[in-house]
Amino acid sequence: MNIVRICLSFVCVSLLVFHDLIGCPPSHFQNQINEGLNQLEQEFVEVLKIKVIPKLSIQEITNDPNKQITKYFVKLKLEQMVKKDQYVRKEIVSYMKENHIQDVKNVPTFLLEIQKRTDNENTKYLKKLLSIYQWFDISEFDKETDHNAWLLVQHADHDSEFQKRVLEILADKSQVGETSPTNYAYLFDRTYVDMFGERKQKYGTQAKYSDKEGQFLTYPPLVDENKVDQFRQEIGMEPLEKYLEHLNKVYSS
Predict the structure, then answer these.
(1) Residues 104 and 155 in one domain
(2) Which phi and psi angles does 136 have, rounded to 5°?
(3) C-alpha 83 chain-centroid distance
(4) Which of 144, 166, 191 is the last residue of a domain?
(5) 85 in a domain, yes or no?
(6) Residue 193, SS3 per DSSP
(7) Could you please report the per-residue DSSP string of 194-250?
């Protein structure tokens, strides 16, 4: 699909341009990223014009998912939302690498505000879709759509209650093969609080960079350090040590 290829090409080009703008004022960064997000939105509308039910106007389809919504539209919409999600996060990672920043707290506020706005918009629309479908089952949609929806929930940290509601759905879906078990594991670790009100994680999917150790370590603490690899193996995940090695390699390069 040519339009989709254009979308992917745009993301790659915009990231290269971003690297050339490191010496520019923050307002220039902000305009550059906002222009990128607007471009992705426009390219999505072009896809709708070509591929989605001609009887409905683009505005009706985009603004009212309950109006004769189709599964094909859902797949396209979730794909577009993830592109925006990843576009913003790649810009932040690029900035951190260029400026040798390890802790996201030291990223300029305007970048974090753009990420927050994008996450809020994605969560709001995802809730509309989930008022129609309980989940985007693999057998009804496909693995990519299941993954895209999960990723958007994973990044909805501003709405922990929503994340917990989806976790309950994924707990059942993962048992019958309608979502990837790793989706459940990541969201479980993202939301779990023990009986004492402390953040913990079972699968070791969440990590934080330690200035003292000079590497990424699991955080919050593990429920059971001795059994974490057993838990991971049960759902097809690599050993924790290899996972952390991968994180350190990615963010140190």
Answers:
(1) yes
(2) -100, 75
(3) 9
(4) 191
(5) yes
(6) strand
(7) -TTS-B-BSS---EEEETTTTEEEE-S-BS-TTTHHHHHHHTTPPPHHHHHHHHHHH
Determine the structural domain holding residue 211 and report its residue range. Answer: 207-252
Give the global pTM: 0.76
103, part of any domain: yes
The residues, any chain, with a CB within 8 Å of residue 200's CB and separated by 6 or more, are 192, 193, 194, 220, 221, 222, 223
Reduced to 3 states (helix: H, G, I; strand: E, B; else coil), residue 122 is helix
The number of folded domains in the chain is 2
> What are the tokens at 23?
């010496």
Residues 234 and 175 in one domain: no
DSSP state of 141: S
Whole-angstrom distance, CA of residue 56 vs CA of residue 52: 8
DSSP secondary structure string, 69-101?
A: --HHHHHHHHHHHHHHHHHHHHHHHHHHHHTT-
Which residues of the chain fall short of a pLDDT of 50? 1-24, 53, 55, 68
Q: Output the pLDDT for position 7.
A: 36
CB 164 within 8 A of CB 188: no
What tokens appear for 153 in the block?
A: 């929930």
